[in-house]
Design goal:
The complex is a heterotrimer of chains A (472), B (530) and C (278). Helices cover 55% and strands 14% of the residues of chain B. Chain B has 530 residues and is α+β, with helices and mostly antiparallel strands. In chain B, helix 12 packs parallel to helix 15, helix 12 (309-340) packs across helix 19 and helix 19 runs antiparallel to helix 20. Chain C has 278 residues and is of the alpha/beta class. Chain C is built from eleven helices and ten strands. Chain C has helices at residues 3-16, 69-76, 106-112, 127-137, 144-157, 161-164, 177-189, 207-220, 233-239, 257-262, 267-273, and strands at residues 29-40, 43-54, 58-62, 86-94, 97-98, 113-116, 195-199, 225-229, 242-247, 250-256. In chain C, strand 4 (86-94) and strand 5 form a beta hairpin. Chain C is globular. The chains are: A mainly alpha (472), B alpha+beta (530), C alpha/beta (278). Chains in contact: A-B, A-C, B-C.
Chain lengths: 472, 530, 278
């Protein structure tokens, strides 16, 4: 097979070709299956068990599914295979390359191969390697397409051999549909497994180099220089900022929910609820910008003003331009709608008969809320607050933009501190090598973050479920 | 009427007029009012925040949506713009330095004093080098223009643009008294001019005294296109240094005085640059217009020519992939769980898992993307394909939960009716339940997509934060997304990034509002209540 | 009560009462309703009802569902105030004072008019706190011993003391349905109201628990003016001295229970009692 031809195949956009192949085989198989079924009726072998269309669907299903699996496999692993083949063929000069250099070089090769030939006609070696890559990836692509077609043909032949007047095509198709639906539901599980596995194994690689206890209890963090990996300052920063955020969000969110569900008339509710939801819809990066644009300078000014007061020692507050307070306050505002809408649901779920009971005893509205509704809604409210805390811990953009990068343990809320999420972002942004403890530490931090939020979420979801069962 | 027909019991209030009870009631009612006030205050705080938010972002964005441009009439000489021949259009399109030379020459001609003082660089900074790129491209498309004069408006440098918009320092302006005498002196080797006029400069004297006692600053005197900087002042005469134009301009009329209360070395624009800009404005060559470049350009390292187009396209590709993942899989999963799933441990596990997945921090999905899609599957870095996959998985639980709610709201009687006429389970679901639930499902899906559009953190981890100056042409190209661009711009060192970031936020929020409006429309128009 | 007050009330009663012959039965009027109209939004639920409810007896409201008997009951302690769309017109005098007038705080009113609901609704608190709730908020008990005494008396009167005295700190929601309802009755009588309103108090209970509650109502009659809404005509006949029959928001017939059940004056009443509709 010609090298030029393979190279031109290497240029073809695989996604569209794959779709074309699948659609074409599907349509052909459907028509063939359907007309075969029509043939059975014409031959007069008695009534069909299923409508002709279902015979069509059945053959199409049998043809498309194996082909789709092969093409999906290509989509996931095709690039890697071509790359592996190329690595094996590289001239000996490349043996000096470190794995990360090699990766970067191959990335460049891959990127260049997608351009026109003129674009990489620079260094001779590079263009030769690129052309070879193009040939190899064209070969892989072509074999994938051929294999897919072959599989489709095989599937079709199998389906055709089973078609008959008495064949229960509909039941088979519906079985297939159900399996497909189940697989879709299972993707959620696969995602969780993927998260757990990737975090776990990368963390394992990290802890092979850095002791677990040193990570969990060390108080020095200098990951950028691959030096110290004591994560306590990060846990502390996360804790402080979540605490500030909850101090804002919990009272405001709860009182807002109480006001909306117990006091406000339908007119006010109809306006205020969507407006609060707008707060929930604003992207966090926008909150982050607001924090550095408005809140952080304001906090800084305030801290400087306090420092200037006669009875307060100079430099009492750090008055940093990025600070924990600004990030915490803005994060708190972001969480308000979260707390208020969850608590609102919970408060509304308290049966009206309890309110009636309290009113009939002569309780005022606020007494009813404080002494009857809140105790009844307490588990649900606690669950809502737990979910909010989990949200605050995992929130990234606001802290990345407004909290700063300095890992330190301080009670001064105007000082620059850093959190787990900030460190994950700063460690993984830019070119990352997957072997250094620096990069791997991000996964260890991610694992801690995941476990923390998981515990909060599971407790909260469980409590909510119990609560619902109680009042349903 | 306090005496009762019924026997008195305990110490309970025996009448509506019992004073003790009334007193107690007043206290209770005060507590009631306080409590209600807290509730209103809570909502007030949230709403006040929203107002502050809209106001601060909006006012910043407004500055960015208009900008200043300098008009040039440039003779396109073949030797400068097409040194490799008029036919080589590709070379012309990339010949930024040639076109920029035209701009530089034009400015040098207008302000000869810059060369004389050795301040060409300061002058050239009025226009960024890359600001001539559109002109180069337009010329390359139409080489016939070479030899003609090209009327071109180039964006003014971002710092001067901010100065003109009043964002550098709170400037005071007033008119001096009439100048009666202009005198040139040479003092300490500086060119100085002394302007005289009886009591014409009282205010200047007081303003200069105020600047000197404060943190410093500059006072500029302008008479048409002549601009001078104040050195010393007394009520009947001031000595100034001429920055541009000529002396004769100051003879006679009242001078326009500008007090810039910020020392020259504390700002990014020099006095001379301000003077030149003001002179160009006086020439009528400076105009303020809508900043279309912000929408039609790709990203740049220079704020005045940076735009969001590439990021919008990047976001679009990302959302496309996200929708292809999240919507079909999400709906299928919801149908399975709601209509087919048997009540067993596996189903319970999937349920708990989905609810939990919806609450996993988005950055964890970014880690998944980095570890699995980039490292394990070797998919391209910085590509919308990977971004879309990650956001698709992130949005999946939202779509599933919304779709399940929609399916659940279809009354069981519909299912019984369909099953009753002999439809199979699958037919019941596909022919009856799903169409009825479709509006609710679509609403949930659109809202989920709007959420995904604003996600930033996971995209940072899969490298979509790389600088991309080209509009991506497909989902595997290097690209950035709108929220990531906002993040990147917000960290820019120059002041001008601030309004630009706000403007990009307005663009992002516009898209989100449109999507949410669509969701509301779908719900209002198609949803049925049972 | 002053002399003038008494005369005024007597004249009122004679004007209002539907069946003057069966009026007093030995007791003075406790609650006197005049021309009550209630509407929810555009829909009128009660049409111009006037009636006098006597002291220290049980008055039963009967009628088909949706006839407005519960709505009317909720006027007496102004529970309709808690429903935004409800609008009440007319006057209700308790001991000669109009409860709908502006200077009467519903909070104070409800300390004098207790209520028991269809579904037992104990607060999610301990049994003790459920009973102590009313005395606490109204400042009736000043010390812990007072409170203990009130709790014990109320529970004893509600016939629940012996069953719960060893578990006063356990949540009220843990009791059986009948016990919960008696707890709610004890909660209502803990503030020593003058009137107790009961809105179908037995409809969620089994026959044994129902019988227990009916006995209790009969005992409580000694001290309180009780108004009970009921679905069951047998129950009305068993526990009440006077019966009012409501139909489509109107008061059709009101008189001594015996008269209403044995010799109704209105055809609709006899049709309902004999089971021809309802």
């Amino acid at each position: 097979m010609g090298r030029d031809m393979l190279q031109s195949i290497g240029h073809l956009p695989m996604v569209w070709m794959a779709f074309a192949v699948l659609a074409a085989t599907g349509c052909l198989a459907f028509v063939a299956g359907r007309s075969a079924a029509m043939g059975f009726t014409a031959a007069g072998t008695g009534p069909l068990n299923s409508q002709p269309n279902y015979h069509g669907y059945y053959t199409a299903m049998c043809a498309v599914v194996p082909a789709a699996i092969i093409l999906l496999g290509y989509g996931l692993f095709g690039g890697g295979i071509a790359r592996g083949l190329l690595t094996g063929e590289l001239p000996s000069g490349f043996a000096d390359f470190s794995p990360i250099q090699l990766e970067q070089y191959l990335d460049r090769v891959r990127d260049a191969s997608q351009l026109d030939a003129a674009a990489y006609s620079g260094a001779q070696l590079f263009s030769a390697v690129t052309e070879r890559y193009l040939t190899l990836s064209g070969g892989v692509k072509l074999s994938a397409l051929l294999a897919a077609l072959l599989a489709a043909a095989g599937g079709f032949a199998y389906a055709r051999s089973r078609l008959a007047g008495s064949f229960r095509a509909r039941a088979q198709v519906e079985r297939g549909v159900e399996i497909m639906l189940f697989l879709c539901a299972a993707i959620a599980i696969a995602t969780t497994l993927g998260i757990v596995a990737s975090l776990f194994f990368e963390s394992l690689r990290f802890f092979a180099q850095i002791p677990v206890l040193g990570f969990l209890f060390g108080t020095e963090w200098n990951a950028q220089t691959n030096a110290d990996f004591g994560a306590v300052p990060l846990f502390f920063g996360t804790f402080i900022i979540s605490l500030i955020a909850m101090c804002v969000a919990a009272p405001i969110g709860l009182y807002a929910a109480i006001y909306l569900s117990e006091y406000a008339g339908p007119g006010v509710r109809a306006w205020v609820k969507p407006v609060l939801e707008v707060l929930a819809g604003i992207p966090t990066v926008v909150y982050g910008f607001f924090a550095i644009l408005v809140v952080a300078p304001f906090v800084r000014e305030g801290a400087l003003w306090l420092n200037a007061l006669p009875f307060i020692p100079d430099e009492f507050l750090a008055a940093s331009s990025t600070n924990a307070l600004a990030a915490g306050l803005v994060m708190g505002v972001m969480i308000i709608p979260f707390v208020s809408s969850l608590s609102d649901d919970v408060i509304n779920a308290v049966p009206q008969s309890l309110r009636d009971g309290a009113y009939a005893m002569g309780a005022t509205k606020s007494e009813t809320v404080k002494q009857v509704i809140m105790p009844a809604a307490l588990p649900g409210v606690i669950a809502a607050l737990l979910l909010a805390v989990s949200r605050a811990i995992g929130e990234t953009m606001i802290v990345v933009m407004a909290a700063g990068l300095r890992p330190q343990i301080t009670a001064d809320p105007t000082a620059e501190i850093t959190t787990i999420t900030v460190q994950i972002v700063s460690l993984l942004t830019g070119d990352s090598e997957f072997d250094s403890p620096k990069t791997l530490s991000a996964f260890a931090l991610g694992f801690v973050l995941f476990l923390m939020t998981l515990v909060f979420n599971l407790i909260a979801l469980r409590v909510v479920q119990k609560y619902r069962e109680k009042y349903d | 009427m306090t005496d009762q027909t019924a026997p008195t019991r305990a110490t309970r209030p025996s009448s509506f007029n019992d004073e003790a009870a009334k007193k107690r009631l007043r206290k209770r009612n005060a507590a009631e009012r306080r409590f209600k006030f807290y509730g209103m205050a809570a909502i007030g705080v949230a709403l006040a925040f929203l107002v502050l938010f809209v106001f601060s972002i909006g006012s910043q964005a407004l500055t960015a949506f208009s900008h200043h441009k300098i008009k040039f009439d440039l003779p396109l000489t073949a030797e400068t713009v097409a040194p490799e021949g008029v036919g080589d259009t590709a070379a012309i399109a990339e010949n930024v330095s040639g076109f920029y030379q035209l701009v530089r020459e034009n400015l040098a001609e207008r302000f000869p004093e810059a060369a004389a003082d050795g301040r060409e660089r300061e002058l050239n900074d009025l226009v960024t080098r890359l600001a001539v790129l559109p002109m180069a491209r337009a010329t390359a498309e139409n080489p016939g223009r070479i030899g003609e004069t090209f009327a071109y408006s180039a964006a003014l440098s971002d710092d001067l643009d901010l100065y003109l918009k009043g964002a550098v320092a709170p400037e005071t302006r007033f008119k001096s008294g009439p100048v009666t005498d202009v005198m040139r002196t040479l003092q300490n080797g500086e060119k100085r001019i002394v302007l005289r006029g009886d009591g014409a400069f009282d205010r200047i004297v007081s303003e200069q005294a105020a600047l000197r006692s404060g943190e410093g600053g500059t006072i500029l005197l302008q008479s048409e296109t002549s601009i001078a900087r104040l050195i010393d002042s007394s009520p009947d005469g001031v000595s100034v240094e001429l920055l541009t134009g000529d002396l004769a301009g100051f003879d006679g009329p009242r001078a326009d005085v500008r007090v810039i209360p910020l020392a020259e070395d504390a700002r990014n624009v020099t006095d001379r640059q301000i003077a030149w800009t003001l002179a160009l404005k006086e020439d009528g060559r400076l105009s303020r217009g809508i900043n279309w470049a912000l929408l039609s350009n790709a990203d740049s390292t220079f704020p005045e020519i940076a735009g969001v187009l590439a990021a919008i396209v990047g976001s679009l590709f990302t959302m496309l992939i996200t929708a292809m993942i999240a919507i079909p899989i999400g709906i299928s999963a919801a149908i399975y769980l709601e209509e087919y799933a048997p009540k067993n441990r596996v189903t319970d596990l999937i349920e708990v898992n989905i609810n939990n997945l919806a609450a996993v921090p988005s950055i964890v999905f970014g880690l998944l993307g980095a570890a699995v899609f980039l490292n394990f599957l070797a998919l391209p870095r910085s590509a919308p394909l990977v971004g879309g996959l990650v956001l698709g998985l992130l949005t999946l639980p939202t779509v599933i939960i919304a779709s399940r709610a929609a399916l659940r709201s279809v009354p069981p009687s519909i299912r019984s009716a369909a099953l009753g006429v002999g439809a199979s389970k699958t037919q019941t679901v596909l022919h009856h339940v799903l169409p009825l639930a479709a509006p609710g499902i679509m609403t949930g899906a659109i809202i989920g997509m709007a959420r995904a559009l604003g996600e930033t953190a996971p995209l940072l981890l899969i490298g979509m934060v790389a600088f991309v100056a080209e509009v991506p042409s497909g989902p595997t190209d290097e690209a950035t997304a709108l929220p990531v661009l906002i993040f990147k711009w917000s960290t820019g060192a120059e002041r001008a990034w601030e309004p630009n970031t706000a403007a990009a936020i307005v663009v992002l929020l516009t898209f989100m509002v449109l999507m949410n409006a669509l969701a509301v429309f779908v719900r209002r128009r198609f949803e049925r209540r049972w | 009560m002053s002399e003038t007050e008494n005369t005024r009330k007597d004249t009122l009663i004679s004007q209002v009462t539907v069946t003057p012959s069966a009026d007093t039965s030995g007791y003075a009027t406790k609650v006197d309703c005049k021309h009550i109209n209630v509407s929810y939004g555009d829909k009128q639920a009660i049409f111009d009802i006037s009636m006098a409810i006597p002291e220290r007896s049980v008055t039963a409201f009967i009628g088909p569902s949706g006839c407005g008997k519960s709505t009317f009951l909720r006027c007496i302690n102004r529970m309709n105030d808690t429903i935004e769309s409800a609008k009440v017109e007319g006057q209700i005098f308790i001991d000669g004072e109009d409860v709908n007038s502006d200077h009467i705080d519903p909070v104070l009113l409800r300390s004098r008019v207790g209520m028991v609901f269809q579904k037992p609704n104990p607060f999610p608190k301990s049994i003790y706190d459920n009973i102590a709730y009313g005395p606490r908020i109204h400042g009736i008990a000043t010390s812990r011993t007072d409170l203990d005494e009130i709790v014990e008396t109320s529970l004893t009167r509600a016939g629940l003391w012996d069953e719960v005295k060893d578990r006063l700190t356990q949540p009220g929601t843990g009791l059986s349905g009948g016990q919960q309802q008696r707890l709610c009755i004890a909660r209502a009588i803990a503030v020593s109201p003058e009137v107790i309103l009961m809105d179908e108090p037995c409809s969620a209970l089994d026959p044994i628990a129902t019988a227990r509650i009916e006995e209790l109502i009969d005992e409580l009659r000694e001290r309180f003016c009780i108004v009970i809404v009921t679905h069951s005509m047998q129950q009305a006949a068993r526990v009440s001295q006077r019966t009012a029959f409501f139909h489509l928001g109107k008061l059709v017939e009101y008189g001594d229970t015996e008269t209403v059940f044995t010799n109704p004056s209105d055809d609709r009443t006899s049709d309902y009692i004999t089971g021809r509709f309802g």
